[in-house]
């Protein structure tokens, strides 16, 4: 329990550090932040408009007071309102975040379902035909950018073969089959890089476990090959795989921006791109903090799973 509380405390401290860095970034930029937000095409904004924005953002107050108000707002879940349409940032994130998380979860499930069995089989048949082909495919998937894979999926499956829709979104409650059909291609595009990484890590971990003394001892005791594989090889091989999975699930939060754009999936990418173009500071900060918080949460969950699989971690 003490180890769990310590890990939670570290995650909370990291979340505070990220929020502080994001806050200070605005104030470290040379010049008036309000003028930078309102400047377009090199033209100077109207002084009255700048003064109004400074008041709305609280920039006229001392820096320490601004920082305190910023942290208090985060504690209350208040991320401010969009400068574009006066819409609450939290409401926009609450609307679109589940769609992005659904895409990430679907891509992760596909990657795990493909990579873990394939990596284990390749390790058990090291040097065989399947091992060589699968390793080559994994290397190719790592080399090809995600937007290229997404574009090829649209070109081949949607435009040429016409077996899948090119993109779009329909709520699950409105039309479940259509929703899952539209989810399939972007989820596959998301899964391509993660599946390649997990395949290589699973293969290496299983090969390492197979060479351990406890596996040879289990075989010497007369245990069946299936029992040795499940209880001694795979279980011990999963700990480094979980670590890699947690790290890459966090990076998927950033990789979904391109995938959502290619497949017109209305997740966090649309308001983020629009906010960056319009210099909508509250929206950009809100989405960045949300993605950072999710990254920390995913890594905390993976740490807890890691400790559940390997009791030695809790003793460290």
UniProtKB/TrEMBL annotation:
A Gene Ontology annotation in the biological process aspect, one of them, is: transmembrane transport
Which compartments is it annotated to reside in?
A: Cell membrane
ABC transmembrane type-1 domain mapped to chain residues = 97-306
Q: Name one Pfam family in it.
A: BPD_transp_1
The record's annotation in SUPFAM superfamilies points to:
MetI-like
Gene3D superfamilies named in the record: MetI-like (1.10.3720.10)
InterPro entries in the cross-refs:
BPD_transp_1_N, MetI-like, MetI-like_sf
CDD domains found in the cross-reference section: TM_PBP2
For this protein, the parts annotated as crossing the membrane are: 12-29, 103-124, 136-160, 180-199, 237-263, 283-309
Q: Does the keyword Mitochondrion apply?
A: no
Query: According to its record, how does it sit in the membrane?
Result: Multi-pass membrane protein
- Give the source's domain of life in one word: Bacteria
Q: Name one GO cellular component term.
A: plasma membrane
Keywords of this entry: Cell membrane, Membrane, Transmembrane, Transmembrane helix, Transport
The entry sums up its family as follows: Belongs to the binding-protein-dependent transport system permease family.
Q: What is the name of this protein?
A: ABC transporter permease
